[in-house]
Amino acid sequence: MSSWPLNGKKGGNRKHSKIDTLPPEMKATVEEMIMDGSATYSDIVTYLEQQGYSLSVSSVCRYAQGYVENLQTLQIAQANFRNMLDELERYPDLDTTEALVRVASQNLMTALTSKRMRIGARSASINL
Questions:
Q1: 69 Cβ partners below 8 Å, 6+ apart?
Q2: Can you say how many angstroms the Cα of residue 98 is from the centroid of all Cα atoms in its chain?
Q3: Is this prediction's pTM over 0.90?
């Protein structure tokens, strides 16, 4: 078996952070500090140093960006699931697959409309 990566990509693109190696309660505290906005990244680094851990501001920043992105993705998934359940409740005879298609179609139309509005606003500002 060859050790060369497929398509020029290395396997296992999962991000690893020093924050992931912190004890669970310490990691939870850092995540809470990120989410409530009460601390800057420098404040978080200082807090971790006081607890005996050494991390850079850029490391905390990268972790925070990924953490927030993951939370946003989860929130979108939860909203989509709620929308599907609403469709199924509204139309009891509706097949689950059809409900999924309706939610996906709605999301697609929202995304397309949003993109068109951004493009239109950009064009309007250029024409001024």
A1: none
A2: 27
A3: no
